[in-house]
Design brief:
about 200 residues; alpha+beta; eight-stranded mixed beta sheet; three-stranded antiparallel beta sheet
Length: about 200
């Protein structure tokens, strides 16, 4: 079969109606009607806007990994994951959308802050692994993924009022086992782990 090549502009949908179902400090949840490239219209499509965030694969000086264990209300289970958190903005709403031009801290500064706040660890050896949409199907925010090596314990925890978590140290083998049994359940965190393993396989420092 001969492939037909068309431009992104020709594939793009156009929003023709947009209703903000919930729009508060935390989220902008929308119901949208789109027009397809062939002129047909369909609704509803649901999408939301939230803060972009950082994920930190944090390795300590012994070669083990610093994780946090906490309850995730989406699946209503306690899971293990890497330290992570939202990139802070200077006032206003915390979601992307119309706020995308407002001042915010850098992703690296957010990663350093979240690592220390959630675990008490700090690092001077940082690598940016990838920036990727959090969920391109329904959301507009991005995950900024970092690898921090030679992490050292320097402080107590400094958690936000909505955070309740327990920092823990795991070996490579324990993380692999948790991924297999489903207790390490965040998809972007699993992707981050596989990227770090690939770096090690290729001898990257």
């Amino acid at each position: 079969m001969t492939k037909k090549y068309i431009s992104d502009e020709e594939l793009a949908w156009k929003a023709v109606e947009r209703e903000h179902i919930v729009r508060d400090q935390w989220i902008d949840f929308q119901k949208v009607k789109y027009r397809y490239p062939d002129g047909r219209e369909f609704a509803p499509f649901y999408r939301y806007s939230r803060r972009s965030y950082v994920v930190v694969v944090a390795e300590d000086e012994a070669g083990n990994y610093i994780c946090v264990r906490q309850f995730r209300y989406g699946i209503e289970k306690v899971t293990v994951e890497f330290p992570a958190g939202g990139i802070e903005r200077n006032g206003g709403a915390e979601y992307e959308g119309e706020q995308s031009g407002s001042a915010r801290e850098s992703a690296l500064d957010a990663a350093k802050r979240e690592l220390q706040e959630e675990t008490g660890y700090s690092s001077e050896d940082w690598t940016h692994l990838i920036t990727i949409p959090s969920n391109a199907t329904v959301a507009d925010n991005y995950a900024f993924v970092f690898y921090a090596k030679n992490c050292k314990k320097i402080s107590d925890l400094h958690l936000d009022e909505t955070e309740c978590l327990e920092p823990e140290i795991y070996t490579k083998e324990e993380i692999e086992a948790m991924i297999k049994d489903g207790s390490f359940a965040q998809a972007i965190h699993v992707m981050a782990w596989l990227m770090v393993k690939e770096r090690e396989k290729n001898g990257c420092e």
